[in-house]
Design goal:
- Keywords: Repeat, WD repeat.
- This is Protein JINGUBANG-like.
- Pfam families: WD40.
- The chain is mainly beta.
- The chain has one domain (about 90-425): YVTN repeat-like/Quinoprotein amine dehydrogenase (Methylamine Dehydrogenase, Chain H), CATH 2.130.10.
- Helix content is about 5%, strand content about 50%.
- The protein has helices at about 60-65, 85, 185-190; strands spanning about 5, 15, 30, 35-40, 45-50, 90-100, 105-110, 110-115, 120-125, 130-135, 145-150, 155-160, 165-170, 175-180, 200, 205-210, 215-220, 225-230, 235-240, 245-250, 255-260, 270, 275-280, 290-295, 300-305, 315-320, 325-330, 335-340, 350-355, 355-360, 365-370, 380-385, 390-400, 405-410, 415-425.
- A hairpin with a 6-residue loop joins strand 27 and strand 28.
- The longest helix has 7 residues, at about 185-190.
- The two termini are about 30 Å apart.
């Protein structure tokens, strides 16, 4: 495992295609510009890469080995790294667990870390990383877990079979109990008689508008509202307290929807294989969400979205290997692209934002750590290596505000769960960002 230069050359751009179907040990790492080969199928994209190994480990390579630009029409927000940047952060890696099946999703809530592999969810203590329990292990008919979210004390899981399952945790027994499956039986019975409650999902097939007709690929929660997106191209809104679907946008996109994010103010962002990000709001005078903007800059499927704390910045990752940064315009209720972050050699599959740090996981098997400066530019502080297949999910496990330490977990299609501890020096901008 090594820390690779953020200026590695990029290979051929990915071509998007929607695909439905122990004891911790730390290690140090060093700067290098070694190459590798990759031929992996990610969840939303398929691409291959071959590069030539190099033994150059000099710091000068960081400044001279410029990457091949993707989306060349969009300006870069990156600054060249300095020696000071490299000294301001140290990283340690810990191997936490290995699974026989790919890790599809990670989530943190309360005292627990949730790890989804196929249809099963394993639960770990987020401090000690000891295994607590597992649930949904026997229900293989649900298909693989696509997303995990939380509504107060309830755990929401979205599945390949087009359903959302609601769970409760018993603190005494540490066991999870299935409370409901959405849409609920009562909700179906209330609507199944009227023909107007059915929508066409494909030729000669109709379903109730309250149910997804394909895999539920993403969940987002804001207050009592739960937002779900699916490969069936729909966006649905659920009233969490009543476990009831209250709204559905049948054709929110022209192709499968891969990801959803919602701001504290209730603005909803959806990213799709149609290469677009759409922005939805619910005006006070309206009963339903309306489309207020369509953001079109990516050249391939959008796989991941992330928002900063106040919702003024949106980050999007796609199969075109770029992370785009969008900023809210004062004169409008939507975002405008301000630049791109480049360096990944393959599709971007996951994004998280914490403090002034953005972390991006990719099909190139690496995680990149970006620091946002006061001037709005970004430095790539480090490239985290160690996974053997695409990095599918990232989650912040803990934020040490006082000691400048951020702990992150990464899950990969290689079935490996890894923990990364990012430690920042006292004079780092990260220490002074809050």
């Amino acid at each position: 495992m090594s820390l690779r230069s953020w200026l590695l050359p990029c290979s051929t751009a990915a071509k998007p295609s929607c695909n439905k179907s122990p004891e911790p040990s730390s290690s140090s790492f060093y700067l290098s510009s070694d190459g590798s080969s990759l031929s992996e199928m990610s969840a939303n994209c398929s691409s291959s890469l071959t590069s030539t190994p190099s033994s150059d480990t000099s710091y000068s390579s960081l400044q001279t080995n410029l990457s091949l630009q993707s989306l060349p029409s969009i300006p870069s927000l990156q600054k060249l790294p300095t020696i000071t940047d490299a000294l301001n952060v140290s990283v340690s890696q810990h191997h936490l667990a290995s699974f026989k099946l790919p890790i599809s999703h990670l989530a943190v809530h309360g005292a627990y870390l949730y790890v989804a592999t196929a249809h099963e969810i394993n639960v770990y203590d987020r401090i000690t990383f000891s295994h607590v329990t597992a649930f949904n292990a026997r229900d293989s008919s649900s298909g693989s877990v696509k997303g995990i979210s939380f509504l107060r004390r309830e755990i929401l899981t979205s599945h390949q079979d087009g359903k959302i399952r609601v769970w409760n945790l018993s603190e005494k027994t540490k066991q999870f109990k299935l409370v409901n499956t959405l849409p609920t039986v009562n909700d179906r019975l209330r609507r199944f008689i009227l023909p107007s409650n059915y929508v066409n999902v494909r030729r000669h097939k109709k379903v109730l508008w309250i149910q997804h007709a394909d895999a539920v690929t993403g969940l987002a929660v804001n207050g009592d509202s739960v937002y779900s997106v699916s490969w069936d191209r729909s966006l649905k809104v659920w009233q969490g307290s009543k476990h009831r679907c209250v709204e559905s946008v049948k054709a929110a996109h022209e192709d499968a929807i891969n990801t959803v994010a919602v701001s504290a103010g209730g603005t909803v962002y959806t990213g799709s294989a149609d290469r677009k990000i759409r922005v939805w709001t619910k005006p006070e005078t309206e009963k339903r969400h309306v489309l207020v903007a369509t953001l079109e800059k990516h050249k391939s499927a959008v796989n991941a979205l992330a928002l900063n704390d106040d919702g003024s910045l949106l980050f999007s990752g796609a199969c075109d290997r770029s992370v785009l940064v969008w900023e809210r315009e004062d004169s409008a209720n939507h975002m405008a692209v301000i630049g791109a972050l480049r360096g990944h050699r393959n599709a971007i599959l996951c994004l998280i934002y914490v403090w002034d740090l953005l972390l991006s996981g990719s099909a190139d098997r690496t995680v990149r750590v970006w620091q946002r400066g006061a001037d709005g530019s970004f430095n790539c502080l480090s490239v985290l290596e160690g996974h053997k297949k695409p990095v599918k999910s990232l989650v912040v496990v803990s934020e040490g505000e006082s000691d400048g330490v951020v702990s992150v977990c990464s899950g990969s299609l290689d079935g490996e769960l890894k923990s990364w501890k990012l430690s920042f020096s006292p004079n780092s901008n990260i220490m002074n960002c809050r």
